[in-house]
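ESCALATION

Customer reports they have been waiting on this structure for their group meeting. Please prioritize. Original submission:
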Amino acid sequence: MRFNQIWVDADACPKVIKEILYRVSKRTHIPLVLVANQPLQVPRSPLIRALRVASGFDVADNYIVRESVAGDLVITADIPLAAEVIAKGCLALDPRGNLYTKENIRERLNLRDFMDTLRGSGVDTGGPAAFSQANRQAFANQLDRLLAG
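Update from on-call: job pushed to the front of the queue and completed.
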């Protein structure tokens, strides 16, 4: 599949995933925009751009939702952001290689809300497992499938 552009919710995106995306952008000539509320170092390339937004709750997310268009790919671990861009006709992929779809996003939102409720009532739900080599590989494989499809 040929994406118009790849957007990255870059504040929490692992460095190794950003590096994969830099290579993909250069190889495929797909523009890559990393959106964060902190300064980012990116390779010099007319295809790769770091965009710094103001600090604040969901500022980067809101920017991506506002600027993305159908046919874009959004890389994010933020489930509400994924839901919003999917509704616009974008594809959304998390840094662990999980593809968000119209079919699974509602379930993921419900699970996220349930876990928030548990945490709010004092239950220690832990957190996500540490990012692993297997996660990196799963992301790279899923990205390759999307680009080939």
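Sent to customer with the following note: Strands lie at 6-9, 32-36, 48-52, 73-75, 91-93, 99-100.
Escalation resolved.
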